[in-house]
Amino acid sequence: MNPDSMLTCDLLITMDTLSAWRDDLLQPAHAAQLAQHVSTCDACREKIATFDTIASLLRHQRELEPGNRIRRAVHAGIAQQRQRSPFMPHNRIVWGSTATAILLTVIFAVVLRFLANHPTTSGNITVPNFVGQQYGAVKSQAHNLNLQLDVHTVPSTDAQQGEVLTQNPPPSTKVKPGVTVKITVGGGTDFVLVPDVIGKDPTTACSLIENAGLKCIVAAQQVQSTSVAAGLIAKTDPAAGEGISKTISPTVVLYISSGNDTPGPVQNITVQNPAIASGMKVVYVTNNDVWLSIGGSTAQQLTHLNLQGTKLFWSLAWSPDQTKILAVTTNITSSSSSSQGWVISLPAGTVAQLPASATVASTGVLSLPYWINDHLIIYYNPNTPSAHLAEFQVFDTMTQQVIHTPFDTILMPHAPIVANGQLYFVNPSIPNTQCETGVVERYDPATNTMTQFLSLLGSATEQGLPIGGIDVSGDGQTIIAATVGTSSAGCQTNPKYTPIALQRADGTVTPLFTTISQQTIPPTPFLSPDAGHAAIPDSNGFAQENIATKQIYHNQADTSSPSAPYPGNSSNTALATWFGKATPGLYEEVAQNLSDGTLNDILLDYVALDSNAAMQPVMKLNVQAAAFAHN
Amino acid sequence: MALVRIELPGNRKRHVIPHKWFYWLAASIGHSLDDGTADYPMRIEDAAFDSFVQQYERQILNYLWRMIGDEDAAYDLTQEAFLRAWTHFSRVRNYAEPRAWLFRVATNLALNYRQQRATASKKLSPLDEEKDLSASDPGRTIVENDLVHEVLLALPAKRRAALVLREVYGLSAEEIGQIMGISRDAMKMLLSRTREQFRNLYIARGQEQ
Question: How high is the ipTM of this complex?
Answer without folding.
Answer: 0.73
